[in-house]
Amino acid sequence: xxxxxxxxxxxxxxxxxxxxxxxxxxxxxxxxxxxxxxxxxxxxxxxxxxxxxxxxxxxxxxxxxxxxxxxxxxxxxxxxxxxxxxxxxxxxxxxxxxxxxxxxxxxxxxxxxxxxxxxxxxxxxxxxxxxxxxxxxxxxxxxxxxxxxxxxxxxxxxxxxxxxxxxxxxxxxxxxxxxxxxxxxxxxxxxxxxxxxxxxxxxxxxxxxxxxxxxxxxxxxxxxxxxxxxxxxxxxxxxxxxxxxxxxxxxxxxxxxxxxxxxxxxxxxxxxxxxxxxxxxxxxxxxxxxxxxxxxxxxxxxxxxxxxxxxxxxxxxxxxxxxxxxxxxxxxxxxxxxxxxxxxxxxxxxxxxxxxxxxxxxxxxxxxxxx
Length: 371
Known about the structure:
Layout: H1 6-13, H2 19-27, H3 30-36, E1 41-49, E2 52-62, E3 65-74, E4 85-90, E5 93-94, E6 98-100, E7 111-119, E8 130-137, E9 140-147, E10 156-166, E11 169-178, E12 182-189, E13 195-206, E14 212-215, E15 222-227, E16 230-236, E17 245-257, E18 262-266, E19 271-274, E20 280-286, E21 290-296, E22 307-311, E23 317-318, E24 320-327, E25 332-339, E26 348-352, E27 363-368
Antiparallel strand pairs: 1-2, 2-3, 3-7, 4-5, 4-8, 6-7, 8-9, 10-11, 11-12, 12-16, 13-14, 13-17, 15-16, 17-27, 18-19, 18-26, 20-21, 21-25, 22-23, 22-26, 24-25
């Protein structure tokens, strides 16, 4: 009912402890199956610091990662904490996975509920079940330890190994991994392609009734590189349903010509050495550790990160320190990225992470559900 009735969803979301579940179901239909099967683990571990109470309410965990549902409450206005950030630890060390969260509060707030998404492209190791969420409240840290006790369902792996082609660019769907939280589509890109594929923005799995069984969540495919040419793209999952067959459909493939897929700058001289022709630059500013790019957006709704990984003059890779993208006016975006470059040699090549330039065409294959 939550999915089909906004009125019911609103009413249920007002029940303490359920608003985060409602939000997850609304945006990810696979979570509904998880709850129906009782796969979510109730935790209710709490801690308090300076009048702020944090509760880890429930956790959904599988081999791809976790959803951690939490709540913050206080008799004081929580929005005064302008720098609330989170980290997730496992057995006392930062979890070996990506951690996504939102703590944005733009108005007076005394209770805040949300979820933390943990995604591991290498697979989670649950040999140690002791976790901790750390809430950084300005200059102090509120720690909430918890332990997972429930069984972790095994990922179902289906070998595919079929080559597809769109506009002359070849790639191979190697395997499909189905877990309770996510479906992982492992795709290997042909290194001889004359374009670099940035991402597969639209991926769907349809069952034998041609109904969408799994799709990209929130319009963006999460992915993690397993090596230079292989990426695992994550979709919503329906782990507890068993279709007779699945058809994989791929479209909206972002790609840029090789040799035109980066910008080159000299941070020491604060100048741009190379910028590709396809991007309409309005203004570029190079600082000792930061690049700021103002450009005419090919798609104003495209708010994905513009640039990311970088290579210095000796071939060493730099990782970004911070980045942001914002709308300047009705036609322009501004992207800013910074690096710690003290130990690296200029000039630096900074590669495009996402840009709305798509291959013309689609591709699809039928997947056998026999292991």
